[in-house]
Amino acid sequence: MRVDVRLFSVLRRYAPEGAEVATLELEPGATVGRLLERLGVPEGVERVVLVNGHHGSPETPLADGDVVTLFPPVAGG
Amino acid sequence: VGRALKWGDADALVALTRMTGHREGFGDVLADGSLRVATRYGHPELAMCSKGQDFAGYDPRGSQGMGLAYATSPIGASHMRGDPAYFELLGVPKNIDRLGHKGKAAIVKDWQDFFAIIDSAGLCVFFSVRNLMEQRLDCPPTGILEYLNAATGAGYTLDELRKAGERIANAERVFLARAGFSRKDDSLPPRITQEPLPDGPAKGMVCHLDEMLDEYYPARGWTKDGVPTPEKLAELGLKP
After folding, report:
1. pLDDT by residue (tens digit) across B177-214?
2. Cβ neighbours of residue B80 under 8 Å, at least 6 residues apart?
3. From CA B137, how far away is CA B96, in angstroms rounded?
4. Is A8 within 8 Å of A41 (Cβ atoms)?
5. Residue B32 — left, alpha, or beta (φ > 0 → left; ψ -120 to 50 → alpha)?
6. How far is B76 from B33, CA to CA, in rounded Å?
7. What confidence tier does B3 reach under pLDDT thresholds 50, 70, 90?
């Protein structure tokens, strides 16, 4: 299955070839955790994960065509 | 700017920013702020404001606690008087369902009191939220307590510090109440409370402000019209 990944700010460094939007081929039934592993994002790195705009966790299962967004938890003020 | 304005026209946005700064042409109208502009054209309800202050970067239909914070902030729709984006959008200290409204009032109250402490201590919100509070939803300011006691030797207790935050929120509210503000002013535009979001992950949502206010005032020890009770003020050492 194919999943689109969008990485922002300092997490861009984990993007395949530095692309803002990347499409990854994952095995069926893969989770967000598996995706993070594929991208090489270490466990301790602070990040907010959205799957199709909703909060996700490492256990969230992914489906073909999902859009996963990763950004660091920063607020503006 | 020489053409009809359309959503997403970035070039027009840049041109209008300059014109607004210099009060040139239509920029002279825009420079009065969105509420005055909307009022001038007969539709004050279209300004995305609370107490005349424009929203920060969040639509409260997709971030319910943010709506309550906007509406009850003494300075209007600011996110700098207790910022629910932390727990509704960023998962700090933990993720709370951003679309739910039940139980949000008590959390928002604690964050407003915490932000009053941060401001009064002269500290940075970003640093304080991540490093100077216990990573719990009720945000005990243990780190700030340590700083203050080290700097002043005053020997504050955690309870005293938290009461100070609550006292500030109440003193501000008493000031507003005397100026005629009450529940009617803790409001959001009808677009936010009545028009469901047309698309996106929060599709169909409105902000449940009234329900949250019904929980918020009791959590604050205020009347159902949003005025601090003499008992609450006495508890905080404030004169009614």
Report:
1. 999 999 999 999 999 999 999 999 999 999 999 999 99
2. A77, B56, B115, B125
3. 9
4. no
5. alpha
6. 14
7. confident
ipTM: 0.73
Give how far A17 is from chain B: nearest CA, Å.
27
A24: closest CA among A51, A49, A52, A4?
Answer: A4
Q: How many residues does chain B have?
A: 240
| Nearest residue in A to B86, CA atom | A75
Task: Give the pair of three-digit tokens for residue B18.
Answer: 């300059």
Can you tell me the distance from the alpha carbon of B82 to that of B74, in angstroms, rounded to the nearest whole number?
A: 11
Q: Cis peptide before B93, with omega less than 30 degrees from 0? A: yes
C-alpha of B108 from chain center = 9
Asked if B91 and A48 come within 8 Å (Cβ–Cβ), the reply is: yes
Give the Cα separation of A17 and A11 in Å (integer): 13
Question: Which residues of chain A are within 8 Å of residue B66 when distances are taken between CB atoms?
Answer: none
Alpha-carbon separation of residue B35 from B60, B72, B200, B233, B234 (angstroms): 18, 18, 27, 33, 37
Q: Do A77 and B83 touch (CB under 8 A)?
A: yes
List the single residue in A48, A53, A54 with the smallest CB-CB distance to B90.
Answer: A48
Q: What's the CA gap between B183 and B76, in Å, rounded?
A: 13
Q: Single out the residue of A35, A44, A43 nearest to residue A15, CA to CA.
A: A35
How far off is chain A from B51, nearest CA to CA, in Å? 19
